[in-house]
């Protein structure tokens, strides 16, 4: 009986310890759930890139031992065979210190013929090789002899044994196989496991915007892999400065300014590659709004694609010389530009608000953005609870 009682006391003490530890940890929430509203447009159902019909996301986190903190994230534009039914696309390079694969063909031909995969810098070639295996083995691709795999990357070497190149073919295939629509996991997941942003833990973030019917009713969705430095700002509030954690401040541990950011933009609006590039450029406004400035060693890329059937490019042209392609009129693009600005900014914030503390290689720890303190700063600067849309935003 004494043994049982003693054991019970130990168990109760252990549970109390665990409860206190959990209580001490801040609950992670998306920015909008905390009263942080970016812009004036409404979100889609999931407030994610998957609000664009047909788009799916799959992620595999690779976490092992004390030093492996990485992964892969897959964005699939539609459910069909992408090589046989390519999507219109474009790339905007904010700062070219990156190892993105597939950029030249996108710029030359204006389309994408594979899913977009995100990973770490040194794993990009391995992931590209696995994606080629996946594509040439799809039914219908038996005679394919050239594939332009699209791989984005950021350097997660601050937390991950990046030299080990731990993302392999199985991880890539798992991400592609398990990709789905609906809510998207954010923070320390997939290609965001080991990333750092604006002095805190970064990761995967996503958001979307829905245009009113009077502006076409189109949806714009954004997914980011955030891993860059600067001075954090939220809705104009100088959060990084108030938290005493920003680039060029005096501190014992060197502030991480380099790193990179990948921004993936999907829309169901019929846009040519020319206008998709214009759309991609606007995402860079958001990058600056949250405090990023594209340091010398930051590779910052925006990839935009349209899922609209009229702007797809068939591999087999069936002897048709001309494509019957639609394109939103230049004068009607402003609302889409606004949508991508808002969705990108919120996606970047979600990547930080949903991230958690992470300890990795060399026992180094990167703390998550402190939510309670951040909200106090936002209240101080009247940057919270802008949740009511102005009456001027009409459907």
Automatic annotation (TrEMBL):
The keyword Magnesium does not apply. Gene3D superfamilies: L-amino peptidase D-ALA esterase/amidase. Pfam families: Peptidase_S58. It comes from the Bacteria. The keyword Hydrolase applies. Keywords: Aminopeptidase, Hydrolase, Protease. One of its GO terms (molecular function) is aminopeptidase activity. InterPro entries: ArgJ-like_dom_sf (IPR016117), Peptidase_S58_DmpA (IPR005321). SUPFAM superfamilies: DmpA/ArgJ-like. Belongs to the peptidase S58 family. This is L-aminopeptidase DmpA. It comes from Sphingobacterium alimentarium.
